[in-house]
Amino acid sequence: MPKIEIDGKPVEVPAGTNLVEAAKLLNIEIPTYCYHPGLTVVGSCRMCQVEMEQNGRTSVVLGCNTPAADGMKVITTSEKVHTLRASALEFLLQNHPLDCPICDDAGECDLQNYYMRYGLHDSRVNLLDKIHKHKVHDVGPTVVLDSERCVLCSRCVRFCREVAGVDELGIFGHGMQSELMNPPGKRLENDYSGNVVDLCPVGALTDKDFRFKRRVWYMERTPSVCTGCSRGCNINIDWEIERRYKDPQRRIQRLKPRYNRMVNEWWMCDRGRYGYHAVDAPDRLTAPHTRSETNGQGALTVDLVLQRAAAKIKAAVSKNGPKSVAVIASPHSSNEDLFLLKSLFVDTLKVDTIDINVSKEETGKQDEILMKADLTPNRRGAEEFGFHSGKNGGMSGDDILSGALDGDYDVLIVVHHDLSRLMGPKELAKLDQRCDYILYLGTHENGTVPVADDVIPLAMSAEREASYTNFEGRVQKTAKPFEPRGQARDEWSIWQDLAQLLGIPWKYASAADVFDAMGNSVPSFKGLTWEGLGNSGKMLAGVPEPAYRKVQSSKPLPAY
Ligand code: SF4
Ligand code: SF4
Ligand code: FES
């Protein structure tokens, strides 16, 4: 491990660490444009120049492509370094347009930030003499390029080739006329296209979904986890509800990937990135529904529905035993939801007609980069609680449905599943007739809602604190930036209220409370605590941390 000194401070770093990364360990900033820790080093922007003394000789080197070597003394604060940075900036800004007031990147732009820190020069080029390039270039379905703002750092080109494994962007032309473009006949349309916007250090690449929607200083950032598939990429939710007159139907403004070395590194897929629109979609369930009379008890509330559900369950169990109740649970539910669901129905009421698995489950595209075909975030967690067809001698969701069609159950509870994907209209009508009481809990209108006697709206993962176990066995938690829509509730709290109505005195105050109880009683969660999950999650008890894997296409294209 080489020992070096940066601005007089000693630091020991793993062999091969470059000076930019070594400086980060000391909280010293070496500014960069073209360098990104997840991409190959090209050393083209010259922004990272530092002075370096080794073996009695002093020289200027690029921080990004100089590995630390024992005995090096690096200086990042000298007059000379400041002049070099200012020159690199002036060169990059020479033809840059004066777009900051209308640029989406304003407020989080490295060109703005470094200019304020290291530049502050007056332009030597008359505004009218600047070279003009394509201003609104539609490079693909998700991203727009403004070539005048581009500093030709090539991060976006390298991302496409090295991580996504596609040749969809390139730099063409010479000298001052060089320009980022799609290669002939190509568009930026890979499944990870949004990452180039995150990578762009300036406002050259903007996201069509976010463009001109909000200034970045009006948003709050909450660290969370994507629940779009069983990978569980770490994300930041950028949200804003203060200026509601703008668009009250869009509390989340955008999702950004959050670094987790063992899950997604710096990236996320477009499916997850743009999936947040479901949170405030017009078909969200925001209030309970019923097909029964409310008996003059005023407006329908979740509590009223729960009272009716408790009465139905009590009557069914006392008349026909626990086999008269069936539950089709869901791998979309969190660990806390499934723990309380199992404690209530399996452990207390002795219901064994319960499972999560159904045929014709919606699946998605899978690749070797991040995307998993399983579009549920918690199948692994559900399996740890024993919800798995065949395990514990249990029934699958399909078995339960055919039993329901035969009139085997008085009460059928369905969580999240859209039954119209599993059966045709005739069968649905038959199910409606054969079950005395169907309770549905979900987040959106779907084909189950019309056959349910009662419907309870559930909060989505972006509106709640909850934990999910990804396909590898990593338990990670989501955060709650804002309240759920309307009367939507946390699923675990629904099971707690139902349990209380059935005489079980649970008093969990939060998801953290439920999780910690789980840590004390479920073997695979043993030793895990809510607090201990931190921002990057923990593996289930007894499940080893998987080996590090670089997140990239298995067939990266070579750098140009
Ligand atoms: S568009 Fe952005 S990321 Fe791509 S080369 Fe230009 S400045 Fe770099
Ligand atoms: S790979 Fe899965 S978890 Fe990751 S961003 Fe995409 S949908 Fe979300
Ligand atoms: S960051 Fe080192 S040359 Fe660009």
Descriptors:
560 residues, alpha+beta, six-stranded mixed sheet, five-stranded mixed sheet, 22 strands, binds iron/sulfur cluster, binds FE2/S2 (inorganic) cluster
Structure explained in plain terms:
It is a single chain. The protein is an alpha+beta fold and 560 residues long. It has 14 helices and 22 strands. Strands 14-19-18-17-15-16 form a six-stranded mixed beta sheet, sandwiched between helices. A hairpin with a 4-residue loop joins strand 6 and strand 7. One iron/sulfur cluster binds at residues 226, 228-229, 231-233, 264, 268-269, 271-272, 370-372.
Rounded to the nearest angstrom, the radius of gyration is 28 Å
Tally of extended strands?
22
| Strand order in the sheet with the most strands | 14-19-18-17-15-16
Bound molecules: iron/sulfur cluster, FE2/S2 (inorganic) cluster
Helix-strand makeup class:
alpha+beta
Oligomer: single chain
